[in-house]
Design goal:
- This protein has 265 residues and is of the alpha+beta class.
- The protein has 2 domains: 47 residues; 196 residues, Extracellular Endonuclease, Chain A (3-Layer(aba) Sandwich).
- Helix content is 28%, strand content 19%.
- It has 4 helices and 10 strands.
- It has a 6-stranded antiparallel β-sheet with strand order 1-8-7-6-3-2, covered by helices on one side.
- A hairpin with a 6-residue loop joins strand 9 and strand 10.
């Protein structure tokens, strides 16, 4: 009786020891699999993506900005390159928010004017090449003059609605408008650069939309409405109207003619 009891105890001890060994092996396997998964995620984060091909607006809702905003909401220019609109809250709907990267450029209107550009900017859309030549495009109202006291000497620039640094677009007539150097550099560029820094730093996505607004049949827009909202977190958000003006100069927005403000008639 005593002998049988000792044998049973030895058997139970052996079973517990084997179970401990098996648990250690399982735990080690799980740790290895977890490490492999982390390495795969890290490598995916540094993966290079091709720039998506140019897409058109057919089949995609361009958003409700046009229904919510008009030029009457914009105060008269008073020395600042841009003004916040709608409390700095963009007009994107919940249905528009997506992590699926795309960029599209809406058709020109009957006067040949740009109507808007729309994108989900992410690592996939950032260009891998230097900006190409865009001099072949002459947007409506392109009547630029050289002035020595303007940076770059040109009053007007070919302004990207969605900058090259966000989607890699070059000589795309649907994405280039006649804009002042002041609007291009002081108004639009800081917003574009903030989005690029965010995307490069996080690998996340930003809904992004830019629409030019023309008064009547004018060939030069009064300015552009820039909207942005980050998708995966709330860190990026703006809704701003950038004025298409050049301090110290007068612009005929109907034709694009321009001159110094103090020039004699």
């Amino acid at each position: 009786m005593k002998r049988g009891t000792k044998r049973d105890r030895r058997r139970q001890y052996a079973i517990r020891r084997n179970l401990k060994k098996a648990s250690c092996v399982v735990l080690l396997v799980l740790l290895v699999l977890a490490y492999i998964g982390i390495r795969k995620q890290e490598s995916a984060g540094t993966q290079e993506f091709p720039v998506p091909a140019l897409t058109q607006t057919e089949g995609r809702d361009p958003g409700n900005t046009a229904a919510e905003f008009d030029l009457d909401m914009v105060p008269v220019y008073s020395g600042r390159a841009y003004v916040d609109i709608n409390g700095d809250i963009p007009f994107f709907t919940k249905e528009e928010m997506t992590e699926e990267a795309f960029h599209e450029y809406w058709p020109l209107d009957e006067l040949g004017r740009c109507t808007g550009a729309y994108a989900c900017v992410g690592p996939e859309t950032l260009p891998k090449q230097e900006r190409g030549d865009i001099s072949s495009v002459k947007p409506t109202g392109w009547n630029t003059n050289r002035y020595s006291d303007i940076d770059g000497e040109m009053l007007f620039n070919r302004c990207h609605l969605i900058g090259h640094l966000l989607t890699g677009q070059d000589a795309n007539e649907r994405n280039l408008i006649t804009g002042t150097r002041y609007m291009n550099v002081e108004g639009m560029l800081p917003f574009e650069e903030s989005v690029v820094r965010y995307v490069e730093g996080t690998g996340h996505h930003v809904m992004y939309r830019v629409r030019p607004y023309f008064d009547g049949d004018n060939l030069v827009c009064a300015g552009v409405l820039m909207e942005a909202r980050s998708v995966e977190d709330p860190r990026v958000q703006f809704c701003a109207f950038c004025y298409n003006v050049q301090p110290g100069f007068e612009i005929d927005y109907e034709t694009g003619n321009n001159r110094r403000a103090n020039a004699s008639d």
